[in-house]
Amino acid sequence: GHVSWDEYKIKFLASKGFNEKEIAEKIKNNEELKIDEETQEVLDNLKDRWYQADNPPPDLLLNEEEFLSFLHPEHSRGMLKFMVKEIIRDLDQDGDKKLTLSEFISLPVGTVENQQAQDIDDDWVKDRRKEFEEVIDANRDGIVTMEELEEYMDPMNEYNALNEAKQMIAVADENQNHHLELEEILKYSEYFTGSKLMDYARNVHEEF
């Protein structure tokens, strides 16, 4: 009736191509697992979320409700606050617990090698600026607070979800028929997946 961290870890690594029996045996015997750096980083983030989802008294065993909070933190108020804190921590450069436009649109890690890459980066900045100014910064004061970010990320907020859907369709709906065809989605795929917030969504939903 409960899931332990080790049980989840075994299944997670098996889904990434590791041998399930071998992993289970090593974990049982407290042996070192040889995991690549990227997978280890994802595991560390998941473990942080595991601790957050484990309601008092903490026992590191998640029941059905706790496991739902772990898999879908955006549906749990406490986990939603945790995700917002993570985003602020990663992007907030001056430590004031708020985001300015320049902090939000700081370019992703990596150097620009050619003009085409520079153009992609310019488009990325343009999209992030629009996202910041028109969607997330609710009172248009040039600062995004934790409350505004939490409101924006809350999937239960129908007004924001509707606005976001309208904005996405407006950008990609070239033939103006109020629907998105496969070709339009593929053409604007960078827009749909380019948001900094999508990095967190990917951790929450593997299908992204």
TrEMBL record:
Keywords: Calcium, Glycoprotein, Golgi apparatus, Metal-binding, Repeat, Signal. The keyword Transmembrane does not apply. InterPro entries: CAB45_EFh, EF-hand-dom_pair, EF_Hand_1_Ca_BS, EF_hand_dom. It is found in: Golgi apparatus lumen. Belongs to the CREC family. Its main location: Golgi. It comes from the Eukaryota. One of its GO terms (biological process) is calcium-ion regulated exocytosis. This is 45 kDa calcium-binding protein. SMART domains: EFh (SM00054). Residues 79-114, 124-159 form the EF-hand domain. CDD domains: EFh_CREC_cab45 (cd16225). GO terms for cellular component: endoplasmic reticulum; Golgi lumen. One of its GO terms (molecular function) is calcium ion binding.
